UniProtKB/TrEMBL annotation:
One of its GO terms (molecular function) is DNA binding. This is DNA-binding transcriptional regulator, FadR family. It comes from Bauldia litoralis. Signal peptide: none annotated. It holds the Pfam family FCD. PANTHER family: GNTR FAMILY REGULATORY PROTEIN (PTHR43537:SF44), TRANSCRIPTIONAL REGULATOR, GNTR FAMILY (PTHR43537). InterPro entries: GntR_C (IPR011711), TF_FadR/GntR_C (IPR008920), Tscrpt_reg_HTH_GntR (IPR000524), WH-like_DNA-bd_sf (IPR036388), WH_DNA-bd_sf (IPR036390). Residues 87-208 form the GntR C-terminal domain. Keywords: DNA-binding, Transcription, Transcription regulation.
Amino acid sequence: MTVSSPTSKRSDVDHIVSAIKGIQADSGTLPSERDLAERLNVKRHQLRKALAILRQSGDLMPAPARRPSTALPRYSEELVRMTNPLEVLELRLMMEPGLARLASLRASALEIARITHAATTPDDAAAGAVDLAFHLAIATGARNHLANEFYKMLRQVGVDARVRIASDAPVCPRRVGERDAEHRLIAEAIAQRDPEAAEAAMRAHLLSVQKRINARSNAGAVAA
C-alpha cells in the first residue's frame, strides 16, 4: 500500500495553482469550479485548496457571498435611518487613509493592477460604480478581512438613497477627471509601495469629497 507524503500532496496543489494561474492569464477569467475541475482532471477538494491559496495570496477575487450584495444586514438598516452623508465621510476619513497605507504594504501585484485599472473612468462607464470599485479594491488590497467587511458595510450605508444628498445635476465630466487624477495619485503611491504617500493622497482625496458634500448640503439648506 502506497501512502502519499505531505510533500507530494503539497506538490499536487502547487501544480494545480500554477495551472489555474495559466488559465487565468490566457483568458482573463476562470470557468465554474466544476468545469475547472474537469478541465484540470483533479478532485474538487484539491481544486478548492488551490483556489483558497490563490485567494489568500490576492491572485484571485474572494468567493462571492451567499447573501445578495444589495441586501443590508438589519443593523445597517438602522444605521441608514440614523446617519447622514457627513458622518459617513467622517468615518471614511478615519478608515481609508489607513487602508491605503496597508494596501501599499500588503497588496499583491494583481490587486495593485486592479486598483490602477479602477483609478480611471472609461468613457462608457458609470462614474459612481467606478469610484466604488476603486475604493473597494484598495480595501481588499489592505488584507485586513475585518476592516474590509466594516468598510463594505459603510459604503452600503453611504450609497443608500436615504443617506445620499439628492441632486438632479448630471455628472460633471470635469469633476470626474479631477477625481480620477486624485485616484491615480493614490494608485501610484500604492504601486510604488509608499505608505506615507498613499495615506496622504487618500486623505487629501477624501477631504476634497467632504468639501463638495458640505457645499451641496449648504446649498440645499439655502434653497429650503
